[in-house]
Design goal:
The protein has one helix spanning about 50-65; strands at about 15-25, 30-40, 45. By secondary structure, it is an alpha+beta fold. Strand 2 and strand 3 form a beta hairpin. The structure holds zinc ion (ZN). Zinc ion (ZN) binds near residues 40 and 42.
């Protein structure tokens, strides 16, 4: 997966990194650690491979359909935006 030009700034300098990807669908969430992503070194734009996103969607579905246990759970605090 090599991008030629960044859609955002036109740069051709990319680096592959591993990030925690947050997948959300209809109020349900799955965090996928170590997800590979190409990052533009000039503007920071992130490009995920379509095949990677499909894998994530598949894992999300099998976990929420009860076919697969996630590795772990975390608790995330939530807050609707309000001015202090
Ligand atoms: Zn860029």
């Amino acid at each position: 997966m090599a991008k030629v030009r960044c859609n955002s700034c036109g740069s051709s300098r990319f680096e592959e990194r591993k990030v925690d990807y947050l997948y959300s669908h209809q109020g349900k969430y799955l965090i996928v650690q170590n997800t590979p992503v190409e990052v533009c070194l000039d503007c920071g734009m992130m490009y995920y491979d379509g095949a990677v996103l499909e894998d994530i969607e598949e894992q999300f579905l099998s976990i929420y359909e009860g076919n697969k246990e996630p590795e772990s759970y975390i608790k995330i605090p939530t807050q609707t935006y309000c001015k202090p």
